Amino acid sequence: MSTITPELARLLEHPAIWRGRSAARTEVLPTGFAALDECLPGKGWPRTGLIEILVSRFGIGELYVLLPALAALTRRSAARWCVWIAPPLEPFAPTLAAHGMALERVLVVRADRPLWSFEQTLGSGASDVAMAWARSPRAREIRRLQLAAERGKTLGVLFRPQRAARESSPAALRIALEPMTQGVRVTFLKSRGGGRGSIELSWAPGWSMARG
Question: The CATH number of the domain where 164 resides is what?
């Protein structure tokens, strides 16, 4: 019978080590949706690293899935920035505020080179979360984003078209969203130690976060 030494135990706690459902403990942030938390490793969004959310088209509700977590992050006493890199739709401040976001911690960046700006933001250590939208990033660019997120201890969220599901990615978590009448269907494409298959999330009629 093998014995885990204190040195080995400390090594296994490193966030880069994956052991399936017995993976090293990592800090997470509740999503605000109990059904989604139950399917995610650690019962929430990871606090550090890159995740991918794939959508049939931008603006189907991908931001609403993140909104409770974004609100919680911006309201922390030691909150860092919540950065939006070149969003395809204009964030609607009154709606964000109505859902609990501290607008003074929100920064929208208009960039000619959004992936470069995203990488710099992730690695700076100045943000709790940074989000970017990209149609066809290269594999090496995504790897750089993942490393930058880990270096800056930041949650990076990369929104991509659904066709990207056919490609491999270094992102620790990948989910796909499909619009429904009042919500979205969430399909787990890559979730280390988390759930498989799909779940459905619903929200109130008439909800909108963006305009443009």
Answer: 3.40.50.300
What is the DSSP-derived secondary structure letter of residue 18?
-
Residue 212 identity (one-letter amino acid):
G
7 vs 87, more confident? 87
Residue 142's H or E segment, with its range, is helix 139-151
- Is residue 13 one of the residues assigned to a domain? no
Number of domains the chain is built from: 1
Which range among 6-10, 121-125, 162-166 shows the weakest confidence by mean pLDDT? 6-10
The residue-averaged pLDDT of 77-102 equals 93
Q: Could you tell me the residue range of the domain that residue 198 belongs to?
A: 27-211
Residue 53 domain flag: yes
Does residue 27 register a pLDDT over 80?
yes
What is d(CA 36, CA 139) in angstroms, rounded to the nearest whole number? 27
At residue 144's C-alpha, the angle toward residues 143 and 148, to 5°, is 120
Q: For the chain, give the number of residues.
A: 212
- The torsion of the CA quartet 200, 206, 207, 212, rounded to 10 degrees, works out to 120
